[in-house]
Amino acid sequence: MSPVPSHEELHEMLPAAALEILEPTQMELVAAHRRECAECDALLRDYREVAASLALQLPLQQLDPARDRAVRARLAARAGSLRGPGTRAPGRPSGYDRWIGWAVAAGLAGILMVHHSVHRSVNYGWLVAGVLMLVLLGVGLYARTQQRRASELRKEVEREKSR
Question: Is pLDDT at 91 greater than 60 in this prediction?
């Protein structure tokens, strides 16, 4: 294929573009071409509609357990390779990131306290701040539970990879 693909070459890429399996640079070329070519734009929309309708018409089948493990292992390996050196695992906040949510909540509670102390007696401000603190505690417990679940899923994926 030439550095600047011809109309025919881009026309041949449309089915793959509809399935979004082209390289990012090729997708950009197709996007630029379809802005200029109404025929290819309409054809790409048609291909996308057909691909979407085919996905809905296929019968649901359980994936073979051996193939399921292989697909999961490949996905986990691919996800691990996407993370470059010096990056942290998702769900593992750094020291600063760990406390940023709490700092924002405390700041908002402070603003609410000041606002209510001007317009109403401070007692209502304390009540609202207490309720917000309980909500914040609930969100924190929920986040901790989700973090544990994610950790368990990571361990399960690692066990599947080692099999």
Answer: no
